[in-house]
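Could someone model D-mannose with this protein?
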Amino acid sequence: MLETWRWFGPDDYVSLDNIVQAGAKGVVTSLHHIATGDVWPLEDILERKRLIEEKGLEWSVIESIPVHNDIKLQKGSYKEYIENYKSSLRNVAQAGVNIVCYNFMPVVDWTRTNLNYDLPNKSQALRFEMTDFAAYDVYVLQRPGAEQDYDPGLLSKAKARLDSMGEDEVDALEKNIIAGLPGGEGSYDREGIRSAIADYIEIGVEGMRSNLFAFLDDVIPVADEVGVLMCIHADDPPFSLFGLPRVVSTAEDVRALLDHSPSVSNGLTLCAGSFGARGDNDLVAMAREFGSKIHFVHLRNVTREEDGSFYEAEHLGGDNDMVGLISALMDEEKRRFDEGRGDIQIPMRPDHGHLLGDELTAANVNPGYSFMGRMKGLAELRGVIHALAATK
Ligand code: DNO
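Reply:
Sure, complex below.
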């Protein structure tokens, strides 16, 4: 597997030198300064690539070229945004970067309620707490009809939870949920999120899926033509939030989208932590079934709870079989080699990491994207890869 590392660009306090020290060979980054929907200019892409290559690294994956909400909703200027997206794909291909991750999540990208969940060893993890989310959705945001989406037991826990929270805690919870986490798309205030939600509720799951398929019909032919491998990221978490339609949450969702456009350019980012937050997603089986279309992997583990809550566990801890998953992905690489495919090595990145050591109190750490936590994760994963390679 190709070890990569997510870098948020020149403003990231984790530098390219740090990435070299961590031992990763590839960089995963995006042009975060380009507004969603605008064309990525070739000069900006080449400049970013130059910075990366200057350090002896390669720009392995773009995460992400975000898809504008108008495309997801097929409204407003969506035709223009589709043309812009195609131009961006042509430009990244011309610059020689040819794996593009994206997502089709409505309104909110990845979502957590607690960014400082204390673990028994005094490090901290990211957590999604269903009670807190329901408390925000039903009693703070007061989304119309929200109570119907939660069972009565959870609602009374959510009410009690809200009553026990101080104003600062409510503000922090709101910020975590709607202001956008690093690399996420969309940052809202309370009014803004209310209206964004209303737009999507109208189209429902079928509308959302057909808009995704229409997007694929538009962009996959261009990806084919210029040699770009697109790989959609899973919904995180992989279930509906705010009553919104989610269409990349299960193996069945993935099957439908890969079948819709059978080209190899229409691929998947297998995000172990996102899909793995549902007990009915068998990651090893998914890696085997979708292997030939997996262009990028996020390796991270989660510990699930009965009500849908979860927290980010150690990379080799948690509820998912990380060793089995890596083994299945390495078998896929072997299959590609035997087949003579050009893209044998699958890029993986250690996804998220705990807060440890000095970073527990540092002000500039991007939630989930600490240096030491990710380095620990990468080192553990590297150990698994080496051990498996020795026995395969
Ligand atoms: C969170 C990430 C997401 C992901 C985007 C992909 O850590 O996995 O921000 O990059 O959803 O488009």
